[in-house]
Amino acid sequence: MVEHAVAKVSDIKDGEMKEVAFGPSEAKVLLSKVKGQIYATSHKCTHYGARLVTGVLSNDGRILCPWHGACFNATTGDIEDAPALDNLCKFNVTIKGDDVYVEADEAELVRGRRAPVCQRTVTASNAFTVIIIGGGASGNAAAEKLREDGFNGRIVVISKEDYFPIDRPKLSKSFGNSPQKLAIRNSEFYDNMSITFKLDTSVTSVDPQQKTVTVENNEVFKYDKLIIATGAKPRSIPIPGNDLGNVFCLRVVHDNTKIDQAIGTGEKKNVVIIGSSFIGMEVASIAAKRANVTVVGIEKVPFERHLGEKVGAALKAFHEKNGVTFRLDTGVASIEPSVIDSSKVGSVVLSDNTVLPADVVVVGVGVAPATEFLRSSPGFNLEPDGSLKVDEHLMVEGIDSVYAVGDICRFKYHITGELLRVEHWNFAENTGRAAAVNITNNNSTPFTKVPYFWSAQHGKSLRYAGYASSFDDIIIHGDLDALAFAAYYTQGDKVVAVTTMSKDPIASHSAELLRLHKFPSATEIRNGLDPLQITL
């Protein structure tokens, strides 16, 4: 252990963070002052490495990353909100006179992260068993959190995918991916935590009376608690030609690889993307570097339903500057075969009979809950969209010992009172963690997280905090044309969501204001109030 004086007590005010050098090396630590006490942790987010000093610190000691909303406890370094998986390292602080001394292990300084301490020993072969259906964000987060909170029973994760959990958001943000490159953890990690994975395995039914899960080879698993975390599946478009070669949806690693290979690196191909929301526009961003890209959408501007017409128009102009062509406010009539190879796509015919040449088609028209297997399972009442309604503890309504998390759960959002289904990574991880907490603590913790997501568009980042299933107005602060703005979505005089570009840390600060029920009114925002002026 090494100790160095890193700052003066007077250098840091209550509610502030300060990044300081640790001794003569280039190592740094983050100081946070919470309710008069100074704490020291590693200084970068364990998700993608953002400098946390550029984020926000709440009065109750939560550090929020400015990039993706990951949250850490300033006093312990522990994770409080996704998407980070590892804790911050915590270092000892001593006050000597007016000097702040930090004691740290040099290896921890370099590592900058601390894996959760997890119970790893299963007590008996017939131990209390939690079955998790789904090996995505929710399923992985639930399994890890169960062990972190001391659960020492059996954990079995049944995953339809043939690889361990991956960082799925990267699939639409870059090509050249592989399961190994995107892996969240390796097999050794899960072995050490006694988490059993059944990969490349599909569940065919669940019997909540017998508490059993049956998979495709008729193997039956008995559970005491069940977490359904099956995520979503891409929606297809019921038109002629949707089964031609080089027509793709994007959900798994192999889809990413096939799209990458179909576009190639030689002569520019013609790529048509059907769908002008997040997946479609992210794929447009990466494909435009190597192909002629046309986006087809039923909206007047991309992102219109989620972000509004003004923000969508600004993003459309930005994409056009980067070579993307749009055919909007129209549908697709058919996908036609190539005259050279009738097994593959050759063109896309729009509703107005316009014909677009197409070597590759990517369909990004949304997703639906992956719950088909529950239609033949007794006791499950699926919502019209295939989701499962859950209570405040994420338990499926009317079914004992079964939780639904991530894309498939419909829950009551505590901010607006609406029943929502949210399809984003942070939400998926946070609901998985919350279900685990309620299993280990007898349903003691209602789910009250604020949704947070992000998108990458031609190298620029968009952040979104809160949730607006609908909105009356959008208040813009900043410059839309320069993509340096904050957009506030209102319902009546209440702000329910915020989108930002090049305005960090407004999104993370807004997420905390929403959590604390301290967000200023729409009238105040309309009159020019900056939410960063509101103390957390």
UniProtKB/TrEMBL annotation:
GO molecular function annotations of the record: 2 iron, 2 sulfur cluster binding; metal ion binding; oxidoreductase activity, acting on NAD(P)H
Keywords: 2Fe-2S, FAD, Flavoprotein, Iron, Iron-sulfur, Metal-binding, Oxidoreductase
Needed cofactors: FAD
Pfam families associated with the record: Pyr_redox_2, Reductase_C, Rieske
Protein's UniProt keywords contain Amino-acid biosynthesis: no
InterPro entries given in the database record: FAD-oxidoreductase/Apoptosis, FAD/NAD-bd_sf, FAD/NAD-binding_dom, FAD/NAD-linked_Rdtase_dimer_sf, Reductase_C, Rieske_2Fe-2S, Rieske_2Fe-2S_sf
The Rieske domain, residue ranges: 4-102
CC annotations in GO: cytoplasm
Family indicated by similarity: Belongs to the FAD-dependent oxidoreductase family.
Name assigned to this protein: 4419_t:CDS:1
Species of origin: Paraglomus brasilianum
